[in-house]
Amino acid sequence: MAENPTFQNVTFESAGGEAHGYLALPESGSGPGVIVIQEWWGLVDHIRDVADRLAAEGFVALAPDLFGGRIAHDGKEAGQMMSKLPEAEGARLLAGAVDYLLAHEAVTSSTVGTIGFCMGGGFVLALAAQQGERISAAVPFYGVGQAVPKSYEGVRAAIQGHYGERDTSYPAEKAKAQEEQIRRESGAEVNYYFYDAPHAFHNDENPQGNYRPEAAKLAWSRAVQFLKDKVK
Q1: What is the pLDDT of residue 68?
Q2: Domain membership flag for residue 1
Q3: Beta strands at 135-141 and 60-64: parallel, antiparallel or unpaired
Q4: What mean pLDDT is predicted for residues 173-197?
Q5: pTM above the 0.70 mark?
Q6: How many domains does the chain fold into?
């Protein structure tokens, strides 16, 4: 595993304008591309840390800023910010991130992977449905919000999901139904894992205290290996 990834704040074209993000590069200087999609809190230190951890595993990781620099300080504010980001707008912005990564000189893969959390998990699925074969691996962690698509017919990516059995924001039964819908509508490889954990169990900086280290460690190891296997 590579260590000491480098990072930079970047600007890229998206949806007819400019978007911003955090780009983490592996020590080798190049690798497969992965998009990291934020929770409803914004592009906070935890999401940058996720990008850094992926870079340490050899990926070129881009975390787009969906909220234009704004950071939420509590659940009410986060919910308001999420509600003001329509699925179509967020997906267009993320499409620019796909274009940026695939054209980046450090990216060695012909496709990109995606990983996202909470709201970002919903956008992972929306982006996979929108981008088709350009997304080879999609990893939603407890994806919720208006970003969750109604149809998965456009999905060509392999999907690995991570959900909590005690998640009250997106109940496990709903996630299991989603897994079957994706499989039925897209024919893609789909595998959802379920953990004895609440919503946001992967976030070790979660202000609501939902972090569960054992579940987070297991889910992360599965996700990293999946991305290594699928993003070429």
Answers
A1: 84
A2: no
A3: unpaired
A4: 97
A5: yes
A6: 1
pLDDT digits (tens, 9 = 90+) for 100-124: 999 999 999 999 999 999 999 999 9
What pLDDT band is residue 4 in, cutting at 50, 70 and 90? low
Token couple for 1: 């595993």
Helices assigned H by DSSP within the chain: 45-56, 75-83, 87-103, 119-131, 172-186, 213-230
Distances (CA, A) of 196 to 73, 189, 215: 27, 24, 7
Please give the biggest Cα pair distance in the chain: 43
Distance CA 183, CA 158 (A): 10
Give the structural domain span for 37.
6-230
CATH number at residue 175: 3.40.50.1820
Domain contains 158: yes
C-alpha span between 112 and 3 (Å, rounded): 21
In contact, 23 and 10? CB cutoff 8 Å: yes
For the four alpha carbons of 79, 61, 187 and 96, in that order, the dihedral sign comes to: positive
